[in-house]
Amino acid sequence: MRIQAALVESTGGPFTVHDVHIEEPRPDEILVRITAAGICNTDLSTRQIWPQPRLPMVFGHEGAGVVEAVGTAVTTVVPGDTVCLSYRSCGACGNCTSARSAYCEAGINALNATGTRSDGSTPLSRDGEPVFGNFFGQSSFASYAIAYESNCVKIPADLAPVLAAPLGCGVQTGAGTVLNVLQPAAGSSLVVFGAGGVGLSAVMAAVSEGCSVVAVDPVASRRAVARDLGAVAALDPRDVDDVAAAVRDITSGGPHHAIDTTGQPIVISQAIAALRHRGALALVGIGKSAEIDIMTVIRKGIQLRGVIEGDAVPHEFIPRLITLHEQGKLPLEKLITPYPFSEIEAAARAAAAGEVIKPVLTFS
Predict the structure, then answer these.
(1) How far are the Cα atoms of 146, 150, 177, 228 from residue 132, in angstroms, in the given order?
(2) Residue 57 Cα to chain centre, angstroms
(3) CATH class of 2-168+331-362
(4) Where do the CATH 3.90.180.10 domains begin and end in the chain?
(5) Which of 22, 246, 277, 342 is deepest in the core (most CB within 10 A)?
(6) Is 248 in a helix, a strand, or coil?
(7) Secondary structure letter of residue 14 according to DSSP
(8) Is the bond leading into 56 cis (omega within 30 degrees of zero)?
(9) Residue 50: which residues within 8 A CB-CB, separation 6 or more?
C-alpha cells in the first residue's frame, strides 16, 4: 500500500515527506492509520546521529490512530479500534512479566532503535529500495505504521488524537517518573530541571499529588506554563548565582525529590546539591557521562535512580493518564501546538528552538 512518510535521508538531515510503500502486517503485526504523532526530543536528537547505512529512516514514536488491519496472531485489538502507540517490549522476559517492561531484557534498543524488525527486514520501501523504520515498533511519522501488541494500547474513540499521541512517551515518561518512581507524599517538595514536554508532564503529575513544585528552565515561556500548571516557583538558572541555593531557599531546606530531564552534568550536580538529606533524584534526560560528588551523595543519603519511560507499562499506565486528564489533573492541551504533517520540519525546528513545548502532527 502506498503511504506518505517523513524521511531523514542523511545523518542530521531534515524531515521530508515522500510516498513510500508499506507491507501488509505479518501475523504478529498491526497496521495503524496514524491520526496524530507527537514530536519528541528523542526523534530530534536521534536523527542527528543515525548512521548513514540505515538511511533513509522514518522516525516517530508518539503515534495515535485507528487500527486498519491485524495479523492472524493478534488478539488484543481489531480493525476500527482507536489506539495510542508506545515503546515495544518482548513481553516474555523477567522484567516484562514482572511489570518492568521499560527494562525489557530483550533489549530496548534491539526492539526499538535498530531501524528494522528483529529479522533485519523493514516493512517500508521506496522504488523497490528499503526504507528503514520500526522506530519504537512504530515509525509514526507516516500516514500508516506497523505496530505490535506490546506497544498498541486501546483508548477511547472520543479522545482527541492530538492529546492521545504524546501519552505514549513524553507524558508517560514525565508523569510516570513522579507517579511510579518517586511517589511523593502530599505536601512534599519536588524540583524539575528542564520544563519541556517531559518536565512539564512531571510538574502536572506532582501538582496533582499535592506537591510543592519548583521548575528550573532558561526559557521564559516554559517557566510561565510551569507556573500556570501550579508550580510555586519557576527559576531562570541564568538569573541566580547559585541555583541549588535558590531552590533550597524556596523549599525550606531543599526539596524531597528532584527530576533531571536535561542530561547535563552541571544540572545533575545542581540537583544533588539542592536536595535535602535523604532526598531522591530521578535521572530521565539522556546524557553521555557526568561527574558526581560521591561524598555529597553519601553524606546526604541521596538516592539516585535512572528512569526509562517513567517505569510505565503502557497498557496499564496510559489509561491512568487518560483518567487524570478527564479529571482535569493533567491539562495536556496547555503543552501542545498542532502542526499539519506536511509542516513536520518546521515543527521540529520550532521544538528544537524552544518556541513550542510539544508539537503534534495532525493527519487529514
Answers:
(1) 12, 21, 31, 41
(2) 19
(3) alpha beta
(4) 2-168+331-362
(5) 22
(6) helix
(7) P
(8) yes
(9) 8, 11, 57, 115
- Angle formed by the axes of helices 197-208 and 220-228, nearest 10°: 20
Q: At what angle do helices 265-274 and 243-250 cross, to 10 degrees?
A: 40
pTM: 0.96
CB 58 within 8 A of CB 124: yes
* Tens of pLDDT, residue by residue, the chain (364 residues): 999 999 999 999 999 999 999 999 999 999 999 999 999 999 999 999 999 999 999 999 999 999 999 999 999 999 999 999 999 999 999 999 999 999 999 877 889 999 999 999 999 999 999 999 999 999 999 999 999 999 999 999 999 999 999 999 999 999 999 999 999 999 999 999 999 999 999 999 999 999 999 999 999 999 999 999 999 999 999 999 999 999 999 999 999 999 999 999 999 999 999 999 999 999 999 887 888 889 999 999 999 999 999 999 999 999 999 999 999 999 999 999 999 999 999 999 999 999 999 999 999 8
Helix (H, G, I), strand (E, B) or coil at 324: helix
Domain limits, CATH 3.40.50.720, in the chain: 174-308
Cα angle at 153 between 180 and 192, to 5 degrees? 30
Contact status, residue 240 vs residue 216, Cβ threshold 8 Å: no
Superfamily of domain covering 174-308: NAD(P)-binding Rossmann-like Domain (3.40.50.720)
What span, in angstroms and rounded, lies between the C-alpha atoms of 236 and 105? Answer: 39
CA atoms within 13 A on the CB side of 153: 29
Q: And the C-alpha cell for 127?
A: 522504488
Helix (H/G/I), strand (E/B), else coil: 318: helix
Asked if 57 and 49 count as a contact pair (C-beta separation under 8 A), the reply is: no
C-alpha cell at 21: 510503500
* Residues 257, 274 contacting (CB under 8 angstroms): no
Side chain identity, residue 226: A
